[in-house]
Every structure is written in C-alpha cells, then in structure tokens.
Specification:
heterodimer, A: mainly alpha, about 0% strand, globular, B: mainly alpha, ABC transporter involved in vitamin B12 uptake, BtuC, two-stranded antiparallel ribbon, 11 helices
C-alpha cells in the first residue's frame, strides 16, 4: 500500500503542522478553540472525501462512526484509566472494526439504499445510549477531556491556555491523518477506488476486486471518522447530542463546498463550515437584524452556497482552483 | 385486546401518512433519479402557508387546497431552478460516473432543505404552532363505547386511500401516466418515441410536491408545526421506500404501512425511545434478505 512514501507528502505535513502551530500561538482563545474544531472537521471530512469523493458511496451517517470513536475513547479513559492519546489509538482501532462490519453489509447496497441505512444507524445512537444507560450515560453522555498539558511543553513555550491545549493536543493527530490521506490518495488503492467509482464493471474486468475495495473504503473512512469523533468528544462530552444528524450533514456540506475530491478541499471545507457563522455575524452584526433572521442566516447562506456549488462548480473550491490553474498552464 | 386494536389503528393511520411520503419520494426517484431530501421541507413550508391562512380567518378547506398548490409549485420550481441545470452538467468530470450522478443531487436537495427551513424560520419566527384537524381528534364513541380510533384517523386513512387510487388510475390508464412509466423505465427510448422526458421529469416533481404537502397537512395536527417538525417523517418515509423498494410505488406504500404498524407497536408495547432501534433492525433484516427492497427490481449489470 505504501510502497513509496513520498517525501513531498512529509514536507506538506510538516508545513501544515508548523502553520497551525504558529496560528495556535498568535490567535485569541476563542479562535484557538475554533481552529481545533476545524482540525476535527478536517479529519471527519477526509472520511467523506474517501468514501464519497474517491469511491462514490454516499453516507449520511458519518456521525455514527464518529460516535463509535468517541464512545470507545471515553469508555477507555473512564474504565481502563489510559491517557487520551492511548485511548484515541484504541478508538481508531475500534472504528476500523466497525467500518469493516458496516462495509460488509454496505458493499451489498448501492446509492440511496446505503444512504438510508447509514442515516438510520446515526439516528439509532441516542436510542442505544439510552437503552444501555449504565454504560453509555444516556442523554447526558460521558465526560472526558484532554487532561492537562504536559510539563515539558509548557516549559518550552510558556503557559498554555485551555483552548490552546485542545488545539495542540489535536494537531499531531490531524497531521498524521493528513499524512496518511496524502499517501493513500496517490497509492495503488487510491487508483482502484477511482476505477470502481467511475466504472464498476470495467474496474472488475481489469482485475480489481470490487467487493473488497468497497469494504476497504469503509474501513479507511471509518478510521478517519472514528479519529475525528474521538477528538471531538475529548473537548468535554461524549453523548448523543455531540454527534447529531446535523453534524453528519455539516461534514457533507463542508466536503462539497471545499471539493469532494481533494485533501486540500477537505481542509477548505472544514474552515468554511466552522468559520461561516462567525463571518456572517461579523458582516451582518451592524445591520440590526431581527433575532429570528440572524438566527437562521448561517443555515440560509450554507444552503445557498451548497446549491450554487453543485450547480455552478460541482468540483468545489479546490476543484475550481485546480481548474483555474490547469487552464493557465 | 383493546391495546392491540389501538396499536393497529394508530399504526394504520400514521402508516398511511408514511405511505404518502414514500409515494412522493418514489415518484421523484423514478422520474428524475433523485432522492429528494427537501421533500418534507416543501411540505413544512406549504403547511405554514396553510396555517397562516387559517389564522387570518380563511376556512380549512381553502387553506388545504392552497397548500397543495404551493407544494406543487415548490416541486416544479426545484426541478426548473436546481435539478434541470444540474442534470445539464453531465459533461463535467465530477458528474461523469453513475455513482456521483446519484450523489450530487442528494446534496443539492439537502441544500434546498436548509434554505426552506431557514426561510420558514425567518418568516414565521420559528414559534411552534398547532395545526387544526378538519374533524375531531378524540376517540369516537359508538353506543357509549369509546372506540380505539378517532374520526381524524379515519379521515387520514380515507384521504390517503383515495389519493393512492387516483395515482394508480393515473399511471395505469392515462397517456401521461404511460409516458411517465416509459421515461422511468428507459429515458433514451422514451425520448426517441416522442415523449418530452424533461416535461415528464418536471411533472414528477410537481405531483410529488403535492403528495408531500398533503402528508404535511395530515401529519401536523398530531405534532406541532416548526421548521424541523417534519424531518423525522421524511426519514421514516425514506426508510419505507428503502424497505419497500425504491423504484416501486406499491413497494413504498407497503413499506409505509409496515413502518407505521411497527412504530405503533413499539410505542404501545415497549418505549418510544426504542423506535429507531426497531426501525434499524427491520431495515437490516429486509436489506440482508433483499438488498433491493421488498418489491424493488434488481439492478441488472450491463456493459
């Protein structure tokens, strides 16, 4: 799978890490927190980039896989007493297994049938959390966090604020996800995914095992989703309200706006989804709108952007940039 | 026994509404190849219009028919403004594969849902309001005995049955219905034999819009009206079509009634919080046995 890990990808990852780290030092606490949410969304959207953009399968319930990661992480922290990064690793492993099981079921289903199944799975999470309340904590959920920043870090860069630590604890995981995604994208597997998406029968005739590739997509996508879910939950609470359907839809919106088929697009999408409400408030704040209008303005703008994107520029922001670049080459 | 009968009647009444939602979804899926997640957004919007008319003193039935007209208009507008331009993009790289042609319109419909919900929130202040029923919603009494169903249940079941009969006649006996069936079966051949497939698509959207508005009008008396009230109804209706088979009108209707009864029995004999576990279990069982749904036709792989 990773026959030749490209040095270019390592370089990109290092640059990514450095820029976010630097931003984490200069931004105010609110935006540090927002930036850490961007990183979680980025990882979550990557799972959609692989599943939908690269392999053409649609899931409306990525939140369910995020919840698998989040709940595993919380249960490991609370019951086994491991620290946050050890539990994140276990959470990702659990999500890979969940993705494999879901993949075996889902490989039989196509398009809308898959969308429907994943949607219902996501909706069943609150029911499960309540059914096994003693384990999952019911509607309230389980509380976990990243703990305190380690001594060596605070002695190296000075006092670390609450939001800042959330960002710095998230960043290494997001960077690892980025590095893996960059390599997977260019790998032999990545090419098989695209082949299956574009023409299933042609792909199978050239020797691609379609069934196995589809299941593998689910495993990979759910690894990313599980990681995102664990990081998301570690902000304070793992519960049904943390992984609602609207989260799955927000991720899908981000994936489409940024560009379904590129890793840069996933990041742009994450930035758009997280900062859009802030941006709208900054612009419309001086207009003295009635609260009922300003409350619904972000959702309205997101909906309009979504439709404009699919109708005018289905490849998203990143695709548009790419198109622009190649035209002027 | 009484509890059992109550569950059967409540399940049949709500099942007939899910059947209606499923009917709207199947119509657009067959006619245009789109799963329309905005459908109950359209229904919510037209029900708000009806509610506003009633609050301003108009009669229930005037509001009722205006809401159906609004639903039809919304369906038509969505096709003309969004879906038709989108299907013209077939040449672009991202829409080249069948998988993406099924996925991208779904995303567009989610965008439309967002716009409709936020527009309703802006216009009607997102206050929850009730919506009247044209007949009593209390248990009927015959000879002093309270029956396990209400006049409104009977009204809902009756009106949905009439709608289903009209739809069946339309599809089986009229030329337009034949044209719609032909375009759903094979658009290429239909176009070659002189059917204007783009008008047929728009008609599917329009009829589906009317059907979903009707569902909205029938379901809101038992729930409060808010921009998000009908999300759950859409999801259940969608599950009904998946269970019944997406390309089969009778399949969707059967799926709707099955889900109505299952939900009602879980409600009565277990707890409402188990509803989605039950739906998930039902969905998985059906799809493991028949991945194309109960009455859906199997996808034939052709090179």
């Amino acid at each position: 799978m990773f026959k030749h890990l490209q040095t270019g990808n390592a370089l990109k990852t290092v640059i990514f890490f450095t820029i976010i780290f630097y931003l984490g030092k200069i931004l105010d606490p609110y935006n540090q927190g927002q930036l850490s949410v961007v990183l979680m969304y980025f990882v979550g959207i990557l799972s959609i980039t692989f599943l939908t953009g690269l392999s053409g399968q649609i899931s409306l319930g990525q939140g369910a896989l995020m919840a698998v990661g989040g709940y595993t992480c919380a249960l490991v922290v609370l019951n086994l007493g491991l620290n946050y990064w050890q539990s994140i690793i276990i959470a990702v492993l659990a999500s890979l297994v969940a993705g494999w099981i879901l993949g075996i079921t889902a490989a039989r289903l196509s398009g809308p049938y898959l969308a429907g199944t994943t949607l219902v799975i996501a909706l069943a999470i609150p029911s499960l959390a309540n059914r096994f309340e003693s384990v999952f904590g019911g509607d309230v959920g389980l509380s976990v966090d990243f703990g305190n920043p380690p001594e060596w870090l605070s002695s190296a860069i000075g006092e670390i604020g609450y939001e800042q630590w959330q960002l710095f604890a998230t960043l290494p995981f997001a960077s690892i996800a980025l590095y893996l995604a960059l390599n997977l994208f260019k790998s032999r597997t990545g090419r098989s995914w695209r082949a299956v998406r574009d023409h299933e029968i042609a792909a199978s005739l050239t020797g691609v095992n379609v069934q196995r590739i589809k299941i593998f997509t689910f495993v990979v996508a759910s690894g990313f989703a599980g990681l995102a879910g664990a990081l998301y939950g570690l902000r304070g609470i793992v519960g049904p309200s943390v992984y609602p359907i609207s989260l799955s839809l927000a991720l899908l919106t981000g994936a489409v706006l940024g560009g379904l088929r590129s890793i840069g697009g996933a990041f742009i999408g994450a930035v758009l989804v997280v900062f859009l409400p802030d941006l709208i408030e900054a612009i419309s704040g001086s207009w003295e709108l009635a609260p009922q209008i300003s409350n619904y303005l972000p959702a309205m703008v997101a909906g309009i952007l979504l439709i404009l994107t699919v109708v005018l520029n289905p490849a998203g922001v990143a695709g548009g940039l790419h198109h622009h670049k190649s035209r002027h080459k | 026994m009484e509890q059992f009968l109550a569950a059967v009647f409540a399940g049949t009444a709500s099942g007939s509404i899910y059947a209606l939602v499923a009917l709207g979804l199947v119509l657009v899926w067959r006619g245009a190849g789109v799963i329309n997640f905005a459908q109950m957004g359209q229904a919510m919007f037209s029900t708000y219009v009806a509610s506003t008319l009633i609050m301003n003193g108009y009669s229930y039935w005037i509001a009722f028919f205006i809401a159906l007209a609004v639903g039809t208009a919304l369906g038509t507008a969505i096709d003309l403004l969004v879906m038709r331009p989108l299907s013209g993009k077939r040449g672009s790289a991202i829409l080249a594969s069948p998988a993406m042609r099924a996925t991208v319109p779904v995303i567009a419909s989610l965008g439309i849902l967002g716009i409709l919900q936020s527009a309703a929130g802006m216009i009607w202040a997102a206050e929850e309001r009730g919506f009247p029923a044209p007949v009593s919603t209390l248990g009927l009494s015959f000879g002093g005995e309270i029956m396990p169903f209400t006049a409104f249940d009977l009204f809902v079941i009756g009106i949905v049955l009439v709608t289903l009969i009209i739809t069946t006649i339309f599809f089986q006996k009229t030329g337009m219905g034949l044209a719609m069936r032909a375009s759903a079966l094979n658009p290429e051949v239909a176009r070659l034999s002189g059917i204007r497939t783009s008008s047929v698509r728009t008609l599917s959207w329009a009829i589906s819009g009317a059907a979903s508005s009707l569902a909205g009008l029938l379901v809101t008396p038992s729930a409060n009206l808010s921009p998000n009230t009908l999300d759950l109804i859409l999801i259940i209706g969608f599950t009904a079509t998946v269970i019944g088979g997406l390309d089969s009108l009778p399949g969707g209707v059967i799926g709707g009634f099955i889900l109505g009864l299952v939900i009602s029995f879980v409600n009565v004999y277990s707890s409402p919080s188990d509803i989605f576990l039950a739906i998930l279990a039902l969905l998985l069982i059906v799809l493991l046995v028949r991945p194309q749904g109960i009455l859906g036709s199997k996808e034939v792989r052709r090179v």
